Predict the structure.
Amino acid sequence: ILSAIVSLPLIELEARIMSSRKPGDSDVLSSLYSMIPLLFLLLACVELSDAAAAVDVYRLVQYDISGVPFGSRIAALNHHAASLHSSAGADLSRSVLIIPLRELNISLVKGNFQLRLIALHLELDYVELDSATLVMTEYISQKKTLGGLLLLLPQMFNFESGDMAVTKDDIHEMERLKNLLVELEELLIHANIPYPVYFAFEHDDIEAVLADIQRNDVNGQAATPTNGGYKFVVSAPEPKKLASPIMTNIQGWLPGLKPDGDTNQLPTIAIVASYDTFGAAPALSVGSDSNGSGVVALLEIARLFSLLYSNPKTRGKYNLLFGLTSGGPYNYNGTHKHFLLQWLRSFDQRLRETIDYAICLNSIGSWDDKLWLHVSKPPQNAYVKQIYERFSGVAGELGLEVELKHKKINISNPRVSLSSWVIAWEHEQFSRLRVTAATLSGLSSAPELFQRTGSLSDSGYLVSEDAIRRSIKLIAQSIARHIYDQQEDMPVFADDSSLAVDLSYVRLWLDLLSRTPRVAPFLTKNDPLVAALKKELAEHTHEVTVQHELLDGMFTFYDSTKAKLNIYQVASVTFDLLLLLAVGSYLIVLFSFLVITTRVHGLIYNFNHDNCVSSFCLLFFNHPIDQL
Amino acid sequence: MTAFHFFNCAILTFGPHAVYYSATPLSEYDTLGTSMKAALVYLGTAIVKLVCLANFLKVSENDEFDPYQESLKALIGLVDVAGIYFALTQLTHRNISQNHKFQAVGLGWAFADSILHRLAPLWVGARGLEFTWDYILQGLEANANLAFSISMAALGSLMWLRRNKPKTLIPLIYICALIVATMPSITSYLRKRLDWHFPEVVGFELGSSLVMAFISWQLFSACQRRSS
């Protein structure tokens, strides 16, 4: 109406122009004036999106290792939806397959899905593979293509869901889902998938849509406007390479007490944890256990030792170095670059001092009663023996068990094949620089590439604060024992003392980390989490340095990790054609009806009163007699 | 496909007006000017109604049927009647018979109503991917509205332009005119108080428009026969 009001004066103007127009004036101007009101009308309308549902979806990671592509290569999606219940021979190459995690029953031999594919080819063990597994292995091994894949994850993996107690599954179900997700992720991360793959969380809207789709697929019905025929649309730009991904290492320095007159440098103990993650969906990789637990433990240990060191009487004769490193999943690239480059730069005097030993923390949040101390030097080594004795001594007092595990560093040629060059533990980077180092972990064996790097399945549910508390106590007590050279059993960090492990602090940081995805290439220099970690370390230590390193050129990442999925309920083409037919025939019938009733009626009317001639003229010439 | 749907709904909504104009003798007598003037009068009455509604009506939080508000809306709806009166009597028309005059006025009135009320939602909504039945129902409603407008114009022309009416039919004419004039209130009563859904309301409108059109046609032809 507003636009019509605006167009009123324009119509008047046009009328005036028309009335004063001399013959020969151009018609273009007047037609232009008549177009303007229509234009106003059209422009006043805003284009809105009116989908049946709009869902947040998270894309599978896309990366290259030395040019070899992995992950999902496309981001944009615009296809009809289909479910697993569609008939076996259906062509899904132009459909989006929507699969809830619960319906999968992958029983792949861990890491050996190549074996399964061979079995598939030779049709061995055919009966064991259920339809879901068949679908997954077939489509992901590229024997068939899909238009897209949407995986529905249970709410327990959703860090944004707020209340942690929202899950409706029991413990066994949660365990099964977690294992399923771990295997699925492994499958997806190492595959090269030419269509978009997205993750979404179960929600009422999308479950209703899925139920509809499944019902239609089971019945084999074609899409009709009222039930079925859903179209999934994700409008995302083409994924671009992330230029120069940066790893940010944060280092906090707590100096020890140098006795007067002593010119020697003090020895240093380093405590290191990597804080970044890698998972199947970079926007969802929060890594509560790997390595959120390590980061939380490091911060709490820093806090405790800063309390100890604040008083000169209790300050030990060791410097403490707290390192939050990035690039963990990529063979601890950050650790390597940071410490190696630091030491090669001769201007940084302090780090040329001897690091007595380094303790790396990895996944200490979900163990029951046993921790492992992984070393690369043989156990007979005097230093290793000393460290292990301290740890196991304290562990015995606390009622835990610590076992020593030795693994040689893999020093084969890094460029030969990727699987042979995996720095299994962070301490190996230190060992390569001839520093005694060990990793304390709840994992018993070394993870493979991109395994246990804080992926989707590593959600806040699976971490226990008590496990972290006990680990903190263990580490802090062992280090204190080493610093203060205690022989007897004197608990420094006893409960109910001012140096007790602060559970609320642990909980606070664990909660924050469980809600922040931390994939290193997507963390910018000014990322708020990095700033927060830096600020926190600065509070507990004397001096904090932040170093930015470029990620190893072997890894290339692509952006576009999060998008919005619009679900539309569409009508088929046949419906539109039928509607056109119906409306067309209606208009034709209306036309004929009106012609018959009005003209014939007029004819009858005229016939009744006027002479036949005029009615004759009306009928055959369609003009009243006056005009003829 | 969605532009296709927009096209379908557009011809359903605006097609009947064009068909009516070309099928009946209106096109021969070149009554386009009358229709356009009637459309402008509709625009004017729409503005007056808006102003009155804005001044006198309270916006209710919930969608309930408040008798006081609804009667106020019905009163303001009588401005419509005044508009038709103005269009029929005060505007100068070329020399066309009564028969065609009310048809042209009714047609112009209905066309303006459809354009103003239905074009914008159609343009915005029907072109999206999502399918709803709303726009088809809206088109059917436009058809019903066309029938109502022409019946209203017929009854109006009977009431104000015809001097000698049969005495028995006069009250009937006025009753029919009242019914047609208060039709918006009736539909909103159905929608809100009785909780009818849009398809049912449109069905009712179509049925009642056919009935009213037939009645007013009979009345008009009866008066025509009587007077001539």
